[in-house]
Amino acid sequence: MQELMSESVKKRIEKTLNQKLTAKSGISKDQSILDIVNNDLDTFVNEVEVIIQGIDKEYDFEKDFKSKTKITANHLTDVVIEAFFSKRTLKKSKKPVKSLSAGERKKALIDIAFAFLTQDASRQKKVILAVDEPESSLHISMCYDQFERLDKLSNHHNVQLFVTTHWYGSLPIIEKGNLFHIDSTLQDSPKISEFSFRNYFEERASHPNDIQFKSFFDLASAIISSLRVRKNNWLIVESEEDKKYIEKHIAHTDNLKILPVGGCAIVKLLYDYLYVPISQKSDAKDLQGRIFCLIDTDLQGVNNKNLPEDLNNKLLKIRRLQYIDANQKVDLVKLDTNISSPTEIEETLNPKAFYNSLKLTIEASSNEEVKVAFGKFSFDIKSNNSFIRGDNSIIYPFEMDGKNPKEEKTKIIDFIDDNKKIICANYCKQIITDKPSWILEIDEFFK
């Protein structure tokens, strides 16, 4: 625990020890606690020295060569921390951590590390946290939470993380970093292959034969197990931006886990893995939560062959975002619906809020060309969605100065594609009262 504590804990103790006290009787000037302690100790030692020299004058408290006789805050900090925590036993459900099972102890260790390493936003020291098999001896339903917490430590709290694992379900969860796959089946020596999580699923053709199957099988098993243990709901989406946009609007967040997996084909693949066990009455009867899979409508689309029907038990559903020209709004439609025009989540949001976030992002950028192009368009207050492309665009040209409106808008569209994360962050900072209509449908599903 002491190694994991931030410097701010020590500084807090030092501040307390060095804080000046109001001058009182017997104190000629403001002194710190340490001043008083050192003065008292000096007086005490002198008195003892007088007494002991009364027995034999050869005795004295002579200080060692070049040693400091005063106690400093640094001397006491570690002692105070050790003394403070040695009198407190960490327990879970009234049971000491040391008495828990191996899996629960490992979970507690990671929980403690997470608590200490996230409490100090201005941590000065660099932390490298290495964990061997976080999933070891842990119930499969808890594996997702374990890896999600470690992923947050790395991505949001500047902790260098090394993890060894046999749980392939972690692969769709982790967004950044490098994967080193060790193949020990070779006779000569193990083969180590490196992949980047940034485009991990785009490189599926180069993966070892077992890696994709195991990753989705493990993750699907963990999701279903979590539904048996407690009433969790899962919303599986394509990207981290999708997750943040939905979190901004959705109502049922207390027991909802939103999982980005890296593309529409991956969402569909995970849906296929989840469908079989959930479709079985014997397996589904014990499930307490629901799962909703959401994708955009892309030009390439997804494979709809042999797409199973919606389950009667209403525990699992997959839908895609689709702009319906007839009613000029975005609906959630089945994957095999005939209407199929490209519709991304960025085009389905609150139009005014999206325009403001785009404007703020462009103004803060160094791209002068797109600033000029954006300045030639105005916001259409009659917009129902947040399209930039096409006839339903939230912006319209008002002063082109001989420029081609289509070419100018293309510059803006390219800028959006390159700055989705920043636009998303600016969108989520706003106060937005009107939800997209399709969010209401997802809210209703999880009720």
The succession of helices and strands, N to C, reads HEEHHEEHEHEEEHEHEHHEEEHHEEHHH
Number of structurally distinct domains: 4
Give the end-to-end Cα distance, rounded to a whole number of Å.
41 Å
Task: Name the structural class.
Answer: alpha/beta
Instruction: Tell me roughly what share of residues is in helical segments.
Output: 40-55%
SSE topology sketch:
Layout: H1 7-18, E1 20-21, E2 31-32, H2 33-55, H3 73-86, E3 91-92, E4 95-96, H4 102-118, E5 127-132, H5 143-156, E6 159-164, E7 178-183, E8 191-196, H6 211-229, E9 233-237, H7 240-249, E10 256-260, H8 264-279, H9 281-284, E11 291-295, E12 316-324, E13 329-333, H10 351-364, H11 368-374, E14 377-379, E15 395-397, H12 405-418, H13 420-428, H14 437-446
Helix pairs in contact: 1-3, 4-5, 6-8, 7-13, 10-13, 11-12
How would you sum up this structure, described in words?
- By secondary structure, this protein is an alpha/beta fold.
- It has four domains: 7-86, no CATH class; 96-214, Rossmann fold; 232-347 and 437-446, no CATH class; 351-428, no CATH class.
- It has 14 helices and 15 strands.
- The chain has helices at residues 7-18, 33-55, 73-86, 102-118, 143-156, 211-229, 240-249, 264-279, 281-284, 351-364, 368-374, 405-418, 420-428, 437-446, and strands at 20-21, 31-32, 91-92, 95-96, 127-132, 159-164, 178-183, 191-196, 233-237, 256-260, 291-295, 316-324, 329-333, 377-379, 395-397.
- It has a five-stranded mixed sheet with strand order 10-9-11-12-13, sandwiched between helices. A two-stranded antiparallel ribbon has the order 1-2. The chain has a two-stranded antiparallel sheet with strand order 3-4.
- β3 and β4 (95-96) form a beta hairpin.
- α6 (211-229) packs across α8 (264-279), α10 packs across α13 (420-428) and α11 crosses α12 (405-418).
- The protein is extended and about 105 Å long.
- The two termini are 41 Å apart.
